[in-house]
Amino acid sequence: MTKAYLMTSLVEKMQSPDQDFRFMGLNDLMNEIKQDQTCFVGDEAVENKVLMQVLALVEDKISEVKNQAVNCLGQLIKIIRQPQMETVVDKLIDFSGGQDEELRDISGLALKTITAELHRMARLLQLLRTLSPQPLTVLAPLLVHPRPVVFVPISQGYLFTDLLATHVFPFLAPNANLEKQRTTVHLIAAVGANGTHQIAPVLAEIVPGVLKAVQRDDDELREGGLQALEALLLRCPTEITPYVAPITQTGIQYIKYDPNYAGDDEDEEMADADDDDVEAELDEYSDDEDTSYKIRRSATKLLAAIVGTRPDLLSSIYKDVSPVLISPLWRPRGNCEAGGLGYLAQGAGPFPFQGSAQPAQVGEDPACDSAGWPVASIAATSKSILAQPPSTSTSTLHLACLSFLVLFFATHSPPTFTPSLPNLTPALLRSLGERHPRVASETFRAGGEWAEAVYEQAVARLTAHDTDAEVRACAEACVGDLWVCATDVVRSRDRREWEAICRAGCEDGGGDHVGLHFPMYLSADGFSSSYTEGVPAALPPALVPQIKPYLSTSDIPLLSQGLSLLALLLELAPTTTFPEIESDLLPDVYRIAHSPLVSGAALDSLLSFCAALVSADNQIATHLVPNLVIAVEKAPKADASPSNVAKAVAQIVKSQQAIAAGTIAQYAKNIKAKTQTVVLSLLILGELGRFMYQEEIRAAASFAAGNIAIGNLPQFLPAIVKIVKSDPKKRLLSLHALKEACVVTHCSQGQLEGVADLLWVPLFENSENSEETTRNVAAACLGKLATTHPSRYLPQLHARVQDPSADARATVVSAIRYTFAETSSSYDELLAPLLVDFLSLMLDEDLTVRRLALSALNSAARTKPHLIREHLPALLPSLYRETIINPDLIRTVQMGPWTHKVDDGLDARKTAYETMYTLLDTCLAKLELPTFLGRVLPGLADDSDEIKVISHMMLFRLSQVAPAAVSQKLDEATPELEKTMKGATVTKDTVKQDLERAAELQRSALRAVAALSKIAGNGASPRFDAFVEELKKNPQWGSEFKELAAQA
Q: How far apart are CA 595 and CA 1015, in angstroms?
C-alpha cells in the first residue's frame, strides 16, 4: 500500500459521519507519523489534504475528536513544511478570535501544544519571531483577562523585560488583585521551567513577592506559589541560594496545612497512642471532601526539590525538615505521606550522613541521631503506618515506609535505632506475613534484629509453592544474611533453610544440595561457624560442581567468592573436598591464575585457595607449580600475567617448604633462557625472597633485588642506596628496588624505622632535578617512610612546600599522595592541620606541581575523605579552574608536512575530572551540585576522548544519586551527547583505530543516556526526550540502548 493511498484512506475515515471512525482516523494518522516521519515527503498535495482535514476536526462537535485533533497537530507540526506551519498558526489564531467560546478554548490548547515543541523545533521558533505583531505583544494583555483559561504565556528575550515590568512585578504586590496574582505565579512557574537565563537575574524581585503571595488566604494561589518556588529551585539553584532558608520555612509551614484539623501537638501524641481512633479516622476521611491535600503535596515537592538538589545544605536543613516530613504522616492524607517518606528516603540513600556528623549534638537530644534524625518519631510513625493492614489505598504508603526503613537501617549504625526496635518489630513481623508481595519483599529487606521470627517466615515463604518470585528472592537473601549474622539461630534449626531452598532449586531435594544461585550468599565466617563440628560428607561433592560455573573471569566478584568458599571447604573437609577439586576444577584454576583481570580481592582469594589446596594434600604442590608455569607460557601475551603466577607459586612453596630448594634451583637455571622464561623466573625468585614488573629483564631483576633485600634490610639496603647516589644510569632501577622493599611489600613499621634515616636524605637529593619517573618512585618511598614516623617526617615535608625549586615541590606533593595509600588513621591528627597547605599547591605556577597536587587531592578523596570534607569549599574553586581549557598551554608541532596541536594542560585537566568523579562517590554531601554540574557539562565537549568518558561516567552516577539536579541540565547536555552519538567523520585519512575509538566513545555516551532516560520521563527536557526516541529507533544502537536502559 503506497503512502498516498494510505493517507487518502485516513482522510476518508476522518470525514466519516461516525464519531468513532473520525477519532480512529486521527489515532491511526498519529501512529503512522510516529513510525515514519517521511510519510509526506515529495507529495505536497496529500500533505495539504491531510492537514486541512485535521484542522477541520478542531471544529468538530465531539470533544474527544477535538482533543485528538489537537494531539495530532502536535505530531504533524514536526514534519510539515514551513508554509504549512504558517497556515496552522494562522488558522488557530483565527479560531481563538471567534465567537464560539468552546472553539476559542480548544484553539488555545492547540497553540499551547504546538509551542510545546519549541525546544526541539528551531524552525517553528524562527517562524514565530517573524510574525507581526509579535506573539508576546498579543498574549501579554491576556494576563489581565477575566478568563484565566486563555492564558498562554510565551517568553521571548527581547520583550521579557517589558513583560516583567508591566505584568509581573505589579501583580506580586501584597494588595494586588487575587485573580491576577494567581495568573502571575503560574506565569513565573512556566517561565522558570523554560526560560532560566531570563528569569535568573531578577529573582531578587520575584522570590520575595511569591513568598508573600503564598501567605494570602487563597488555596489556589498557595498551590501555584509553591509550584513556582519549586520550579525556580530546580532551574535556578545557584541564584536562589540566598532564599533557600525562607523557602524551606514556607514548605515546612504548608506541609502541615490542614484547615480541617484542629489538634495540637499534644493531641497528636494522644491520637498516635490510640490506634482505634486512627482507624476510625481513616474510615471517615476522604480526599474528595477536601482539596487542601494539593497544597501539602506542592509543599512536599518543594522540600523534595531542596533535598534533591542541595546536598551541601542537608546537614543544616534536615533538623528542620525531617521532623516535619515525619510528624503528620499518621494522619490520613493518601499519597502525601508516601511522598514525604519517599523524599526522606531520597536523603537517607544518596546523601547518607558521614560518621563525623556533629557528635556533640547527640547529647542535646537523645531522641535524635548525630545528623538530627528524630529516631523516636520515625519509629512511632512507622509503627502507626504498618499497624494498619495494607489495602488498595494504603499499600503505596506501606511500601514507602518500608523502603525508607531499609535505607535508614542501611545508612545508620545499629546503636542509633536499636532502642526503638522493640516498638517497631511487632509491626514489621506482621508485614512479613502479608499477602501483598511488594510489602512482604520490602519487609524482608528491612529485617535485622529479630532473627528467629525472620527465619521462620523466610522458611515458610520458601516452602510455599505460591510464593511470589520477588518475595522468594528476598527471603533467600535474608537467609544468607542470617548465615552471617545469626549463625546460632540457624544452627539450631536442623538445616530447614537448606531443604526449603533446595526444594525449588534442585531435582532430588536433598538438604545438602543447593541451587546455582545460593552458594554465593554464603559468608566464610557464617559457613565456618555453622559447621564447627564438621561438614556433612555429602556436602562437598554436591557443592563443588555448583561453584564451577563461577570460576571464570567474566564476573570477578563471584570468582573471588567462589575461590574463598572452596578454600574454606578444603580447610573444614579436606578429605572429601580435595578429590572433587583435583578431578574437576584444577584446569579452570590454571586458566584463571595467569589472567591480568585477577587482582585485588580475587588474587587474595586465589592465593588462599592455593595454600588451602597444598595443605589438604602434600603431594599436589609438585604438580601445581609446573602446571601453572606451563599455562602462563602457553597463554597469549595479552592474556598472561607472570606476576600473578609468580605470587601463586610463592604461596605454594611457602605452604610446602619441602619443595623450596628444588623450585629455587629450577628457576635460577632459567635465567639464561629465552626472555619470557627469564622474566617469569626472576619474578618467582623475587617472590620467594620475601619469606627465607616487569616486561624488561632489568625491571624484573630490580623487583627481585628489592624483595630479597627484605630478608636483611641493614645488609642489603646500603648497597642499593650506594647505586642510587653514584650511578645515574641505574638510579631508576635501584629506586624501584627500594620501592619494592619499602612500599610494595608492606614492610613492618619496625623494619622501616631502623633504615628510615639512611634513606630519607638520599631519596630527596636524588629526586630533585630528575626526570618525573625517577621523582615519582622516590616520592613513593618518601611517602611510605613518612608514615613510619609521621611526627618527624611530615613537618620536614611541610617545610618544603614553599621551596623555590619546582622539582622539590613536586616531590613533596607526590610523597603526600603516597601517604594516603596507608589506610591507618594513626597519623590523621598530624596530617589534618597540614593537608590544606599541601593541597594549596593546586595554585602553584608550575603545571607539573599543579597536576600532582590534583592527584593528591584525588587520593585523599578516595582513601581519607574525612580529612578534606570540611575544606572542600576552599579547595573546589582551584579544582574547577583546572578543568577549563587554557589556550596558552596549547602549542602547534610540525610533524613533516602535517601540523599537530599538543595540549600541555591535558594531563592536569584529566586528573581534575578524575578527582571530581571520586568526590562524587565520597563527598557528595559537600558538593554544590549546580556548580559541579557546571564543570561536568563542558567535559562533554572536551577535545580529549578520555575526559568525555569521565564526564559520561559522572552523568551516569549523578542520575543515580542526584536525579533532581541533573534532570534540570538535560537541555544543556543533549547537544554534545547528540554530537558524540553521530560518530567520527570518515575522511580519506581515517584509519580503523579512529573508528574503534569513536565506537567506544559512543558506547560510553550511550550508557550515560540510558541512565539519564530513567529520570527524564517528566518532560523536563523535550529535546532530550526526542534524542532518546531517535536512539531507540536507530538501527545501529537501538537494541543496545534498550538493554542498557533495562539494566540502569
A: 38
799-818 burial code (b ≥16 CB/10 A, e <16): ebbeeeeebbbbbbbbbbbb
Q: What is the dihedral of CA 947, 951, 957, 963, to 10 degrees?
A: 170
Residue with cell 633485600: 709
Q: What is the CA radius of gyration of the chain?
A: 35
3-state DSSP percent of the chain in helix, strand and coil, to 5 = 75, 0, 25
Question: H or E segment at 902?
Answer: strand 898-903
Four-point Cα dihedral 244, 247, 249, 250, nearest 10:
180
pLDDT at 433: 66
Predicted confidence band at 276 (pLDDT cuts at 50, 70, 90)? Answer: very low
Is the predicted pLDDT of residue 63 greater than 80, yes or no? yes
Q: Which three cell numbers mark 169?
A: 512585578
- Alpha-carbon span 673 to 675, nearest angstrom: 7
- Asked if 856 and 838 count as a contact pair (C-beta separation under 8 A), the reply is yes
**Helix (H) / strand (E) containing 898:** strand 898-903
Closest CA to 590 of 645, 670, 653: 645
C-alpha cell at 658: 619441602
**Rounded distance between C-alpha atoms, residue 1046 and residue 1048, angstroms:** 6
Q: Which of 814, 825, 762 is nearest to 784 (CA)?
A: 814
Is the pTM here over 0.70, yes or no? no
- The tens digit of pLDDT for each residue in 528-543 reads 555 556 677 777 887 8
What whole-number distance in Å separates Cα of residue 964 and Cα of residue 400?
Answer: 19
pLDDT in tens, 968-1005: 888 889 999 999 998 877 777 777 888 888 889 999 99
User: What's the grid cell of residue 690?
Assistant: 620475601
Report pLDDT digits (tens) over 599-609.
Answer: 888 899 999 99
Nearest to 120 by CA among 894, 906, 971, 746: 971
Instruction: Report d(CA 702, CA 695) in Å as an integer.
Output: 12
Q: Give the DSSP letter string of 783-845.
A: HHHHHHSHHHHHHHHHHTTT-S-HHHHHHHHHHHHHHTT----TTHHHHHHHHHHHHGGGG-S
- Reported as a single tens digit per residue, the pLDDT across 338-361 is 444 444 444 444 444 443 333 333
